[in-house]
Amino acid sequence: MDKPLVSVKTITYNHEKFIAQCIEGILNQKTNFDFEYIIGEDCSTDKTMEVIQEYAAKYPGIIRVITSENNVGATINDQRTDEACRGKYVAFCEGDDYWTDPYKLQKQVDFLEANTDYGLVHTNFSCQKGDKFLKGIRDGKNLPCGNVLSDLIRGNHIATASVCMRNDLLQAIRIGEPIRKHNWRMGDYPLWIESAARMKVHYLADDTITYRIHGTSATHGLDVMGDFRFFSDRYDIKRHYIKKFGCEDLEPFINKMYHRELLKFAIFLKDEDLRETCLQYFKDSSVGESFPYLMLSQYPIFDSLYCFVYATRKKLKMVV
User: Fold this and answer.
1) Whether residues 192 and 304 fall in one domain
2) pTM of the model
3) Angle subtended at Cα 156 by Cα 154 and Cα 160, rounded to the nearest 5 degrees
4) What is the C-alpha separation between 267 and 126, in angstroms, rounded?
5) Which among 147, 235, 241, 266 is placed 20 to 30 Å from 157, CA to CA?
6) Using an 8 Å Cβ cutoff, are 259 and 288 in contact?
């Protein structure tokens, strides 16, 4: 095809059970423009590549597969698929998620074409864990639109598979470079922050995708130490961008949230240093957080209770 208006990209590794549904959701899009579909397959050890090759053979004018002889890791796989995108816009869907609205791309491109000061548009979404569904995670929530840099540093409210953004913005950011430099374990969150620092961001309330939670997913298949590493990276990202973009007014809020979340790891990991860090913070009367201080000072009482609650939450978790 000639240069497409949109490039859709999927990075995938060992998604044999899910990749067909992911691909079908993209191919089912109804648009008045051409789009290409870039799939970055990172030498899966299951039959993910076989499934992809079947679809690529059926849709050679749409699907392009990016791969190599050896596994390159998520960051490089993500970057090489970014570089392969030729469209004016780029949309995302990782191999274990899937799109449910056949007009998703059309709605987002229509908005971006009409609003040149916006660089990215995302949507409402649902979650699936096994045969359990949670519909419309953002229903009834007025998510921020426009200049949302401060809001995003406070917390990530964007689901990756729901995003469509300008390709020139994506290429200018080159998010793989800071990810490798800082050894962050997540690439989507810093990309949204970098995008919001450059252009406006829009939210559509339409539920257009399903985010899948399963035991081998990057952010929901972790043990407690894995959870802790993701937690640490999230706050490293927040503090990095507070400094980079001069948002020092957010530091009190970020510090408060950091220590509240750190509390669960201080208790669950039985780490004396972590507990002491929290304890010193919450002893500051200006913080006014009596309950976290109580949990730490009366640690033996809360230990068993929290371990039970945390383990139960991990089993039942249905949202990001």
Assistant:
1) no
2) 0.85
3) 165
4) 32
5) 266
6) no
Structural domain contains residue 292: yes
Instruction: Spell 67-96 as b/e; 16+ CB within 10 A means b.
Output: beeeebebbbbbbbbbebbbbbbbbbbbbb
- Is 230 inside any structural domain? no
Answer yes or no: do 152 and 267 share one domain: no
Is pLDDT of 320 > 50? no
- Domain residue limits at 288: 247-316
Side-chain-side CA neighbours of residue 136 (13 Å): 7
Q: Is residue 54 assigned to a domain?
A: yes
**Whether residue 21 is found in the same domain as residue 134:** yes
Compute the average pLDDT of residues 34-46: 97
The residue that leads in pLDDT, 17 or 312, is: 17
pLDDT band at 213 (very low <50, low <70, confident <90, very high): confident
The rounded mean pLDDT for the chain is 86
Whether 206 and 275 share a structural domain: no
